[in-house]
Amino acid sequence: MPPLIIGHRGASRDAPENTAAAFRLAFLQGADGIEADFRLTRDGTIVCLHDERTGRTAGRDLKVAETEAEEIRSLDVGRWKGESFRGERIPTLAETLEIVPEGKSLFLEIKIGPSIIAPLKALLFSSRFDPDRIRFLSFDSEVIAALKEALPSYRACWLTDYRFRAGWRPTPEEVVETARRCGADGIASRARPLVDSRFVEMLRKNGLEIHLWTVDNQGEALRLHALGVDSIMTNRPGYLRGILPGAPPA
């Protein structure tokens, strides 16, 4: 079975990242799901933005955690990508859930600590969005553990990189041990340099899902397809849809 194709921040090569336009385009290009980043505003609204501050994509530089949702939502985060995207706003999680078509998935990356879990739980329960269509992602293993305690029917994957983070560069054995210790259902990992057949076998023996990011070229996509990973996150979902063996047409 070919890996799922997940639009990284939507179809972010072609549209402004983490916007409704990017999410809708990813699905039009045949993505099986989208990956998007979420954090809390000062008044407790869950909004979709990768960075702690809005300056890179919005022009105005506001710290999300110190700004009310109404002001965050007034920002234009589309114009930097092109005039055709002028007026795109930072979506809320509630709006993002409405965009995801039936049968498609949301890879929900949490960019802050456990404070998001209570409002996240309330929103997901009220939305009735199928838990099987969601993967929680976080670089913080303590957040993963807290998610599994609060939302045991949802799957959560520990995000890991192989560059130094806080003075630590994990080995394959440490990745598996960390995932097991925090109760993760899998990992969401940078595609290189550690991901090879031995590493995939280790993860499978421990019953862990394998999701890889961010892959935009044919050679790497085909390599991961051959390894049998569960999903590939890409800025170019339409491109990967066209090159992966066995992938159904969009």
Looking at the structure, what is the overall shape? globular
Assign a percent range to the helix content.
25-40%
Into which percentage range does the β-strand content fall? 15-25%
Parts with pLDDT < 50 across at least 5 consecutive residues: none
The whole-number mean of residue pLDDT values reads: 96
Question: How does this structure look, described?
Answer:
By secondary structure, the chain is of the alpha/beta class. Helix content is 33%, strand content 19%. It contains 10 helices and 9 strands. The chain has an 8-stranded parallel beta barrel, surrounded by 5 helices. The radius of gyration is 17 Å and the shape is globular.
